[in-house]
Amino acid sequence: MLTRPARFFKPAAPPEHIGVQLYSVRDDMAKDPRGTVAAVAQSGYKEVEAYNFQEGQLFGMPYPEFGRLLKANGLTMPSTHANISLVDFNDQTGDISDSVKKWVDAAPELGLRYITCPSMSEQDYRQMPKMIKLFTAMGNYCRKAGVRFAYHNHDYEYTQSATDGRLLIEWLLHEIDPAIMAMQMDIYWVRFAQHNPLDWFRLYPGRWELCHAKDMADTPTRETIEVGAGTIDFKTIFSKSAAAGMKYYIVELEHYRTTPLDGIGKARKGMLELF
Known about the structure:
The protein is α/β, with parallel strands linked by helices and 275 residues long. The chain has 12 helices and 14 strands. A hairpin with a 7-residue loop joins strand 12 (215-216) and strand 13.
């Protein structure tokens, strides 16, 4: 009796870019940035995302010194968060401030590919037409400098409306040319706002080049938890990564069951099990 040979299906390879947002280990970075960077590398990460990228320093070190620290530990930094607001915008000239231009110009030398605005203040997002001008000017300057501008969401972009009734996220997606601004979807905050990431992938394919991955605890406060230990169906979400345009997957934690370093280690393992 002839039988068909068994078919063996090779599982999908993990993404090329799985990093960690250093805000996840913020207290450790404040106390011992060198030791913490080494510990992050020892936990298996090859990429990190910084925060508060401005004014010539990162974690108390000049940019070149921090770059050398990363290299010594086998790490790269494709992206960073950097605060930018209407204070940095000249409405008369339509240009960003010289101080912002200075740290944008420093980005490519550190290997950065993305500079990401992490949030908007309520005072700023109540003036969305001006914010669109600011982000457009920022995106254009970043492109000239050889780096890509991006925006990272929280929950309020999916719950708060601007003057014309559109959600803030719709303003960002509709009014800014995708050629000059990418989106970093924080999947936790999208789910916290009771939205489905897959709906936004479908409506705006190819726009979501980066993501933050932190899971949601099954508790009344829905605090962050390690990927794979909570209620978010990352496997289904990431099955549509190609349509979303997703390239960079960045683990983040804001709350901890044990220690921050232990948490990001568990989150990395949880991420790898998804692919």
